[in-house]
Design brief:
The chain has helices spanning about 5-15, 20-35, 35-50, 70, 85-95, 125-130, 145-160, 185-190, and strands at about 55, 60-65, 75-85, 100-105, 135-140, 165-170. The protein is an alpha/beta fold. The strands form two sheets. A four-stranded parallel β-sheet has the order 4-3-5-6. Helix 7 (about 145-160) links the parallel strand 5 and strand 6 (about 165-170). Helix 1 (about 5-15) crosses helix 2 (about 20-35). The longest helix is centred in the N-terminal third of the chain and has 18 residues, at about 35-50.
């Protein structure tokens, strides 16, 4: 069908999230057809990323500096810390402009099936940050999955000895959501977490 170089490109693209072998083939073909406009700038951007992007040793985000831009920003509230699972979650919160404190990225959630225990996540670094004493509120912004909620309960137990306010994100009916289309778990959570009108 194609030479080993093209097949290698297809295989590499197929491993990206949301792409399989068929999408990988389509992306490879599109890139090769538009070599000057798409492929060469993509190669340049990827090489720049390899050369300059680092993991922040404070919050574990990705940036060109260490500490990252967010950790260095003097306008951010250093008393608030938002704990998220992954860099993508941090980016989502930043896009929404809902939080102006600092972050801590766990690098995943507790999951026995996936071999993710406390040692594989950044729990120890988190405890050291809290022990430093500047943090007054910790927001646990983890996904409402079984593993996410298991991690929330684990963190609550680990953080109880510290003099910090702990909070979690609200869960329930999304804006614009219709009750008939929601799953039982979402409805149950929304009903039990109801508030005064």
């Amino acid at each position: 069908m194609s030479g080993p170089e093209i097949q290698r490109m297809i295989n590499a693209l197929s491993r990206l999230p949301g792409l399989g072998p068929r999408s990988g083939r389509r992306a490879a073909l599109h890139l090769l057809k538009k070599k000057e406009q798409l492929l060469l700038p993509l190669i340049d951007a990827l090489q720049t990323a390899v050369d300059s992007i680092k993991i922040c040793q404070v919050c574990f985000s990705l940036d060109t500096s260490d500490p990252c831009t967010i950790c260095q920003d003097p306008k951010r509230d250093e008393k608030q810390l938002c704990i998220v699972e992954d860099v993508a979650d941090l980016w989502a919160l930043e896009r929404a402009h809902v939080f102006r404190g600092h972050y801590h990225i766990l690098g995943g959630v507790l999951s026995a099936i996936d071999g993710m225990g406390p040692q594989q996540l950044t729990f120890d670094a988190l405890i050291k940050r809290v022990q430093a004493g500047n943090i007054k509120e910790i927001i646990l912004a983890l996904n409402a999955t079984v593993d996410g909620q298991t991690t929330v309960h684990y963190l609550i137990d680990r953080l109880k000895p510290f003099d910090v306010k702990l909070s979690t994100l609200a869960h329930g009916v999304p804006v614009g959501g219709e009750l008939d289309y929601l799953d039982d778990g979402t409805l149950s959570t929304a009903f039990s977490a109801r508030r005064d009108a």
